[in-house]
Amino acid sequence: MSVTIEIAYLIDYEEYKSELVKWLKSHWGKFYPERNDVEWGERLFPNRGKLPLTFIAIDKSAGKPRVVGMLTLKNDGMPGYSYPKESVWVSSLYVEQGSRNNGIATHLLKYAIREAERLNIGELLLFTRTSGEIYKKLGWQTIATPEHQVGKVLVMSKQLNLKDEYKFGKSRNILFNQNTISYPSVNENYIPNQSTSRYFQNPKL
Known about the structure:
By secondary structure, the chain is an alpha+beta fold. The protein is about 20% helix and about 30% strand. It contains four helices and twelve strands, in the order E-H-H-E-E-E-H-E-H-E-E-E-E-E-E-E. It has a ten-stranded mixed β-sheet, sandwiched between helices. The protein has a two-stranded antiparallel sheet with strand order 7-8. The radius of gyration is 17 Å and the shape is globular.
């Protein structure tokens, strides 16, 4: 069955924030049992063109659109560890269970990488309790394996390409169709706070 997903800024779809809070609590609540709904909501960032910011994936395949995934870019992604203050982290990557194995997490990551390049960010960091395979396939490298919270994690780094030909031009939709990705042409007059959306279909990789 064909799947059509829009990946966009949370600021354009703030009606989904309550669902994202539920995901944060269910997936990460065991590490932060003291947080309430308001505090979880403060970890969602409806911004555009500046950090921190949260992206979401919306399933528009049939019927009423529904949010199926999220990802945040922010500073201070691993409190308590001595990484440079200006470090930018991928955080809160999540795809709801019924929509997994469709490539949505991969496309959220690709989207975040392109957005970071557009913001002239040279490196992204993240930490994961998984084997990190989804990240390794996109060129992330393990740089540390510290103990964090309830066990060992992988800290991973992705060096970004800031050459002009890889920077986004003026905002417009992008169609993701299977393994073919079409990006907009370069436009030096790009306006960072202009709304952007990215679409893909049949996102299996």
